[in-house]
Amino acid sequence: MDFSTLTDVYQELEKTSSRLEMTSIVSEFLKRVPEEELPVILLFIRGRVFPAWSDKELGIGNKLIIRAISAVSGASEATVENRIRDMGDTGLAAESLLVKKAQTTLFREKLTVMKVYENLHRLASLSGKGSQERKISYITELLSFAEPTEARYIVRLILEELRLGVGEGIVKDAIARAFQVDPKLVERAYSISSDLGEVARISKLEGDEGLRKVTLKTCRPIEVMLAQKIGGIEEAIEKFGETAFEIKYDGARIQIHKEDGRIELYTRRLENVTRQFPEIVKSARENIRARSAIVEGELVAIKSKKDRRPRPFQDLSRRIKRKYDIPEMVKNIPVEVNLFDLVFYDGESKIGDEFRDRRKLLEKIITETDIFRLADQIITDNVREAERFYRNALSLGHEGVMAKNLRAPYQPGSRVGYMYKIKPVMETLDLVIIGATWGEGRRAHWLASFLLAVSDPDTGRFLTIGRMGTGFTDEEFKEMTELLRGEITEQVGKEVRLKPKIVVEVAYEEIQRSPTYSSGYALRFPRLVRIRTDKGPEDADTLQRVEEILKGVTT
Ligand code: AMP
Asked: Which of 402, 422, 442 is the last residue of a domain?
């Protein structure tokens, strides 16, 4: 397929923000795509060159792109940079600089989708000495064949800045529509293969029948089963009878895939994080006694191998993001895995099996080590015993417990009520708003992000503890703006300082220590519960209360 056919579709998609219209554009387009090109098209349509689970990445920054555009267009690098600044978009800048060039080129080979894909694929596998130059040559080759509009999109693809808003949901609907297959089967096939290209190809060639046959494969992540909330221990036991209670570890969910000596690690968002955790790869290789398996667990950053108390989530997040100096990270931020499920074993999918049996098999094939462990579990229908387990989990610094239905199968990608999370209800805080920022775009006339503070009765000062911009309806934004407009004491740019007057009740995920705010703490994901018109700043919560809550929850 010519690349220009795809750019026509990109242009059409760019003109609309309607989900329905996008679905119809994509589905009409998919009908025209030859089956062998479907996998590539399904990546490109979402602005990707590799699927999330691939360990390949392009790693092309602005600098290299500027050099490539300069080389092809004949404009100096400074000119390219200026053009990007003026137009606010590297793709459009490339397009405009290549227009002149296009008029003077008489003969040019027509660019195909596969040619673009091949060059980008080759480029991603280059590393080491001289690789930068070779990467540029692959890009310049594409840009010199490209029509100006094609160049716009090639550049955006390379920089991963396509941003057409074509999400996974739209693509799934479009596949079902284009090939007249059951959307539920598309959903299911995707949730266990995580491969839209393959799902599209099967839909086209084999229809519903083929989709039904899609099954798990190692080294392809699955969409994980999700948990729901429940009132408490008693409710869970009422629902499930005998229930498995496990510690709810506070980290990141991880899938470990083993196929002979090969180990791959994926996050809940299907990203490949194998390279970041060599110690887990080694543990998995040595301690999963199976030829092939997919097991699941929670990856947690811990204080040390001896003191296994959890560290803040940010530490784990640093390890997930870091792609270099890995050995140093392994030493500085130790991690452990707490395994809690098994979905594949020696060539067979286990998702239809009951949780009770999956866990038994997991116990059978895992050799526990200090960093590779089974999640602590009790099985009981006794509320008091379960409550003891829960309190103990909290006292060890964990988030809470999970309650699991022993007889339930594994349902990839769904919140089906087979497992529930039980955590302490976070106490809300009444906080004073002492600053805000004017919004952007549609919200330009509203104050849109609010600086929150606790009071410090010892000094009479207000100490900041976070910024809140979510949880508001349009009405509430308006109301807040009206309430606060008269309290503005100073404005610098979009930032305003406010007299401490308005009190809001705020919920949050967690309180963390933080040097960013003057209280020394930060609220994670603060959201508005309501405006406390009944309270004045003197009634706001104090720094001391924040410290008490923190102690109560974390010790
Ligand atoms: P939440 O993210 O609040 O919906 O809670 C569910 C998440 O808790 C899961 O996706 C896992 O990442 C995590 N988790 C921690 N411990 C366990 C466990 N023992 N079983 C299942 N999930 C767990």
From this structure: 422
The residue range of the domain holding 318 is 226-255+298-422
Tens of pLDDT, residue by residue over 297-346, are: 999 999 998 888 888 887 898 899 888 889 999 999 999 999 999 999 99
Which tens digits make up the pLDDT trace of 142-191? Answer: 999 999 999 999 999 999 888 888 988 999 999 999 999 999 999 999 99
Listed residues 391, 422, 453: the one ending a domain: 422
Active-site residue, 248 included = yes
Q: Relative to the CA of 229, which ligand 1 atom is closest?
A: 4
Number of other CB atoms surrounding residue 286 within 10 Å: 11
Pocket test for ligand 1, best of 223, 248, 401 (most atoms within 8 A of CB): 248
Place of tokens 């008269």: 486
Active-site residue, selected from the candidate residues 135, 248, 404, 423: 248
| CA geometry: angle 356, 362, 363, nearest 5 deg | 90
The CATH number covering residue 467 comes to 2.40.50.140
Residue 201: name the closest of 190, 192, 231 by CA.
Answer: 190
Q: Where are the beta strands (DSSP E) in 136-285?
A: 228-229, 243-248, 252-259, 262-267
**335-345/372-374 β-pairing:** parallel
Which among 223, 247, 249 is the best mutation to test ligand 1's pocket, defined by most ligand atoms within 8 Å of the CB?
249
The residue whose C-alpha atom lies closest to atom 23 belonging to ligand 1 is 248
At 228, list the tokens. Answer: 């729901």
- 400 C-alpha to ligand 1 centroid (Å): 10
Other beta carbons within 10 angstroms of residue 314's beta carbon come to 11
